[in-house]
Each structure stands twice: as structure tokens, then as C-alpha cells.
Amino acid sequence: MSVKEENVIDGIGIDKDTNRLVFLITDPFTWVVQEYEHLKAIQNKINNYVRYIESHGYKEQYKNREFDGFRIEIVFKYQYTENGEAFLRAGGKQLRERNIDFVYSVAKAE
């Protein structure tokens, strides 16, 4: 699973410290070629997660559980570009306006 599978949740779990439902997006793709398509895939994936959150799709799995909020996390295999970072900052602002935390990071090389 990855950012390219737009209709699949890559990972989901509960942050027990904050009682937030956390959604993971994994991105193993480079930014060198087709930056626009890469950004579009990320946007589509995030939009699908937001629809899932706002439609309460998670309640099927977490029937009687109430959460204090939500967080979407993206973990990139490769460093994002300047355009990528600008996109992520802008997207994060829009998500926070919907009470969804947003964090992103680059995985450490092994």
C-alpha cells in the first residue's frame, strides 16, 4: 500500500496519549520525475482520508469508541522538493481548519 492506492488506508491506529485516531500514508516514490503527478496522488489520498473521517467510516471498525481528534501522517522514503513542502504546509493548514492534525516526515535511511 502507498500513496498511489488512493482508495486504500495504508495504516490506522490510536495514539493512546492523545486519544486521536491516526491515519498513515506511506510514500516510497522519488520526487525527481513527475512532481505534479506525485503531488496530485498525495492530494487524492489525503482527500479520501478526509472523506472517510468526515463520513465516520472508521466507526465500523471502532464501533463504540470516541476520539478526541484525528491525525494524518505521511512518511516519505525520499526528501520532498520545495514545491512538495509548500504543498504539504498549505494542505496541513487546510486540514487543521477541519480539526485534523497533519504531520509529515522523511524516513531515516537504514
Would you mind describing this structure in some detail?
The radius of gyration is 14 Å and the shape is globular. It has a four-stranded mixed β-sheet. With 110 residues, it is α/β, with parallel strands linked by helices. It has two helices and four strands. Helix 2 links the parallel strand 3 and strand 4. It has one domain. Helix 1 packs parallel to helix 2.
Q: What descriptive keywords fit this protein?
A:
single chain, 110 residues, alpha/beta, four-stranded mixed beta sheet, 2 helices, 33% helix, globular
Name the shape in a single word: globular
Number of helices: 2
The proportion of strand residues reads 25-35%
How do the strands of the widest beta sheet line up side by side? Answer: 1-2-3-4
The tally of structural domains comes to 1
Structural class: alpha/beta
The average pLDDT is: 92
What is the H/E string?
Answer: EEHEHE
The termini sit apart by 20 Å
Number of beta strands: 4
Low confidence ranges: none
Radius of gyration: 14 Å
Bin the helical content.
25-40%
Largest sheet: 4 strands, mixed
Q: What is the topological layout?
A:
Blueprint: E1 11-15, E2 20-27, H1 35-54, E3 69-76, H2 82-97, E4 100-106
Parallel strand pairs: 2-3, 3-4
Antiparallel strand pairs: 1-2
Helix pairs in contact: 1-2
Short structural summary:
With 110 residues, the chain is an alpha/beta fold. It is 33% helix and 25% strand.
